[in-house]
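Discussion board: Methods & Data

I've been asked by a reviewer to show the raw model output for two of the constructs in my manuscript, not just the figures. I'm not sure how much to include, so I'm pasting the format here to get opinions. Each protein appears as its amino acid sequence followed by a line of discrete structure tokens. Is this the kind of thing reviewers expect to see in a supplement, or should I convert it first? Here is construct A:
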Amino acid sequence: MFKRQYIINNMKVICIGAGAAGLFYSLNASKRGAEVILLESNFKAGKKLAITGKGRCNITNNKPVNEFINHVVRNPKFLYSSLNQFTPQDTMEFFESHGCPLKVERGDRVFPQSDKAQSIINTLVNEAKKAGVIFKYNEKVISCYKDQNEFVVKTKDNVYKSDLLVIATGGKSYPLTGSLGDGYKFAKNFGHKIIDLKPALCPIKIKERIHKEMIGFTLKNVEILAKTQYFSRKVFGDLEFLPGEITGPITLTLSSLINRFDEVELVLDFKPALDNEKLSNRILREIEKTPNEDVKHLLSTLLPKEMREFFIENTNFDVDKKLNSFSKKERLELIDSLKHFHLTFDGLEDIEKAVVTSGGVDVNELNQKTLESKLVPGLYFIGEIIDVDAFTGGYSLQIALSTAYAAACNIKLIYDK
């Protein structure tokens, strides 16, 4: 897996942030001979990692790089070098060869066999300790700067100095895990541009009233079309309702695509597996079978009970009307409502509740092979802090590991064996 091994002559490195990126960078840089101090504001490593994948930790996605890259939303081309240096398959080999067996589930998503994120964290921490990484917990960085050829990092109680500085502080989502956005402040102080931060992989707010019976209900196998002034995108899958918002896999995907638009048209297709003709025939059969029932009965054959009142409230059908008097025009209107049910976009959930942060350090100011700053020699940014993000499915964690590995393998070297 490690294509080349290096010995670095007493190079001192400080890495800020003991998440997936910081841990993986530190252990790889230390294996190559660097003296690495890993600073973490929490009392332990991997606090955000522990809650990913609902505590199961979807560590990567077992797709080849040329397919993986299609699931990256922002700046996918920037990641080609990092992903090719350390692929999803390399990730799987790393964990399995270090005593953490994995399994591949639907959609090529990769999890630890234990179904516990702690298995991933333990592997990273243990290997980092074996490599000689010095862990410093409860060390919240107050400031960092470069003094001639030396980086100075100040915490509340200590001052650290190093040859290289790596910022792996993550984004602004899940602030309770320590992701407070401090890294963006540090980047700005070094002169870096920060692309506007937006929530990604988060619920979408809608203006329609969510009925009590809908809260927590999952609408399966539906399709949502999202239209902006520049593009339209359909996503198929499951949708969940919460007070004032929709969530679930397809909503999370769409949120990453529309998070930089104020006006978005959302159109829900309750019956994506049926075209208009097939749906019309199904409705006609029900009318012929129960002509004396009312329209409300017809809806009970087409929609889950949790959705019927919501549908009725947001359409104009006379649900007490008998089916034997339900006209062709009304039937076509019903089909259109089932296939093109409009939801009113009301923005996204706050960034603190997003799975990941979209935006961050401008990739144009970073070397895509090494992740080193083009503005400040010896300064590196890895993981979620940079302006790249991806869909759910293990992609974001792989990006963290790949950028960490690339930075660790390409630091300035004294000896090359």
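Construct B, same format:
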Amino acid sequence: MRLIHLAPLAAAAIVAACQPAGGGLTKSGLDPEKFKSEAGGKPTALYTLSNQNGMEACITNYGGRIVSLMVPGSDGELRDVVLGFDSIQAYFPENNQTDFCASIGRYANRIDHGRLPIDGDTVQLPVNNFGHCLHGGPTGWQYQVYDAAQPDDTTLVLTMHSPDGDNNFPGNVTATVTYTLRSDNSLAIDYSATTDAPTVINMTNHAYFCLSGDPERTVADDVLQINAATYTPVDSTYMTTGEILPVAGTPMDFTTPKPVGRDYALFDFKQVRNGNGFDHNWVLATEGDITLPAAVLTSPESGVTLIVYTTEPGIQFYSGNFLDGTIRGKRGKTYVQHAGLCLETQHYPDSPNKPEWPSTMLRPGETYESHTIFAFSNN
């Protein structure tokens, strides 16, 4: 399997102001004043990271969401390559119940019918998606406020203190998400968590990437490669069946680069039909080696390439199937179906109910750690 490799990643550099000079707009056109609010009794804000190459990442502590990510294309111009909104109010669930670019917890993806086995007992979690518990439940961490600390111009540390019983998950959990914008134009995300009682943890980032920088286009022409020879099929409720099947000879095969849109409407294939497109977990062949590319995505329009590196065993590729043109995002742009796609590094969905799969159990005295790098370049 041929995959593109990058040079070893450089250390983070401290090079630019944490906030826009003079309190003005960010490079992506965001007004930080529109992100000052309160949710759950805690203040929200917008934090700006930048590097010496002019790349910029804007992140809010509400849900730990990447709001904008400015990346240079092949023409040298900066493009915002993620979907999102211009104000914090637009992220509140009463206005738009989306997971745009959020730091997901406690458990990314689905748990079957919300049934969580813990040491012989079954904890009933709330169900919020086709009868299953999705992304930590209806008030998962994407709808909560992280405590934020910005130690330097390239780093943001977000901390979540999740009490025992948060969406009925057991244990008091302290989790951190550290964003680092590196001098090689990569955004590193480091996750950690501890607990005082047995629980499960599976954290990810739910970025919707639009590498062309134009969300009124689709990602159909973007070229994707996934370093995985197998995947976990799903039923009609998007729940994993417990099988691990080969991708060879099916539309699920991204072992060599192909356009995202080539097969996402092949509903004659049951898995594409069940996922309403691509919405599946691929079993990575990287075996947790963060120096090996897990996925490579390129926009022919902008020349931007994204390489995903991770310590996680799986990656959920979601082709933006449920975007339907009813959401208006940044700059008033309408987000059509397939306006963006997700590459969520993770343990497999419903792992607590499938003991043969890599475990997501976290016990007192242990530390959960997960590392992902979104590395950007241009042709």
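Answer (T.O., handling editor elsewhere):
This is acceptable in a supplement if you add a one-line summary per construct. For B, something like: The radius of gyration is 19 Å.
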